[in-house]
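Think of the structure tokens as a kind of shorthand, similar to the way a musician reads notation: each symbol stands for something richer, in this case the local conformation of the backbone. In the example below we present two proteins back to back. Begin with the first one, reading the sequence and then the tokens, and try to describe in your own words what changes along the chain.
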Amino acid sequence: MLAVILSGGSGTRLWPLSREAYPKQFLPVVSDDSLLAETIDRSLLLDQQVRVLAITNEEHRFVVAAHLQAQAPERTAGIILEPVGRNTAPAIALAALAAMEENPEELLLVMPSDHVMRNTDAFREATAEGSKAARAGKLVTFGIVPDAPHTGYGYIKAGQSHGPYQDVAAFIEKPDQATAERYVSEGGYLWNSGMFLFRADRYINELERQQPAMMAACREAWSQRKADMDFTRVGAEAFKKCPDDSIDYAVMEKTDDAVVVPLDAGWSDVGSWSALWDIQPHDENNNVCRGDVITEDVSGSYIHSEGRLIAVLGVSDHVIVETDDVVLVADRARVQDVKKLVAQVKAQGRSEHRFHKKVHRPWGTYEGIAAGERFQVKRITVTPGASLSLQKHHHRAEHWVVVKGTATVNRGDDVLLLTEDQSTYIPLGVTHRLTNPGVIPLELIEVQTGSYLGEDDIVRFEDTYNRV
């Protein structure tokens, strides 16, 4: 079995904790591990022979690679990069084409990277039952047994039973409250989980039958693939021609071979702050508090601090989330509208929808500390053995002070070795590079001065990570 993990989403519904450049699948929103880490672990626990294949994009590729290297170095089947987002049906087609290279009948277990599953044993049992149907040529989806009427999920109407699985009678769009209540009271309706299981060849054949243009574009893109470090890059222009559609619309709603396996495993898609409140342990006042939080006369609320103390008095059913640069206060019943706030942030030309103050790079992180006219201060952390690109800037000079660890600095023709409390100056226009040759993280303070301090003022000459 190949566990295909889809990790291309931006996760704006959990803003401000989730940002486009570092969305919710990379965050420890439920436990000490990220949602992606939990998904990888859940995959590996299914069977000793399961391998993991990730589908992601250019921007998130190094974070996904770091997760796989840390958790599944011997059981990683690869990382496929989508040049552009074309929804789930084409992404899964690329995974199926990759599997076909070795075994056309390989089972593909397709999972989003940002879901929660509290009962892994129940998930393992459901996957085992689904595997039997998938090996027989069925296209399996997993339907979540509803524990309440929910208007935020699509539903699956189950048809004739075949023991552990049932035919899919219909896929149903997100209902209104009254309809959702009727579905739960009647029974026979399941939430659409967005997880699937089938043979690679069956998916390819079905997609070719239902969406020939999509399959043709995916085949062309796959035929033009190139290896780049740990990643597989498909033909960009060919993939851009691919129709944009989900697997539900492109295949599952049209095929005669769709079946559903009921799943009752404490599942959540963590699709909003209220969903996160639902699945976490509540205190005696029905609150969920994470981080440095104190409350008085507060009930039914989700309160999350990333650093500063949050003191809350006399409110009910609220969501309060603090990050380094944003504080969100919302009615818990209105959290689906967080996307409207994100739209305002974008419209104002701000950056808080895309980046945290701490920005992740393949070599480590940087964090803005202070900024003003013609200057900017950052805290830079470089992973042991990692190196920034050989680069120069047209509009800024840089001063570096080592706070912790050891730095090798290429500055023009000079090579410097700096230790704690030592510093250097990089004049405007001088080619330079920063490397951590040690075994502990390198931390330094960077002071930038100049007429323009944007991140796009970088001319790269060499780069370990093949960035442009």
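Once you have a description of the first chain, move to the second and do the same.
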Amino acid sequence: MPRDFKSAIKDPRVVMRVIIGALLAANLVAAIVAIKPFGGSADDLRREQADLRRQLTGMQQHLANTKRLVDKAESARRDGDDFIGTYFTDRRAAYSTVMAELERMAQEAGIKLRQDSLELNDIEGSDTLKMMSITVAYEGPYGGLTKFVDLLDKSPRFLIIESMQTSPQQGGTLLTVSLKLDSFVREGAPGATL
């Protein structure tokens, strides 16, 4: 066989057939690449590039929106912590602080405290905040009681009037007012995470 192979290589027709076959195969490969390039045609690549740019723009907008939301959430947390630090009283001093504030307002309004009671309740969903319900009764003239309510409204403490009942005293110009007030207290330092 080696002799036939050597003689076949020497035959110019066989060599030409091999060369023509190789050129035909190269032309077929070139035609396939020209018709449908492996990386895509120029139009396909432009469309893909435009799609990728649109996706990138969308993702950048989503990222910017997410950053804005994070900034807003952090700002809201700071504002909430500031509010709690300003208007909520520390539990250790809550009773004395709120009662001293009520006493100061009563003296300024010219009315007298008759009775008071306090109840501390948990707030559902919070481990660090409690609601303090204060029931107080005052007596005094109508003008003094309205001034007291006005002072309650302008108090630096976060006091909520839950209910108010007023009744006149027999044989006099004095009124008795019973108030149920709500205030909030925190269990810890003002800067503590809530």
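Compare your description with these statements about the second chain. The beta strands are 89-90, 112-122, 129-140, 160-168, 175-186.
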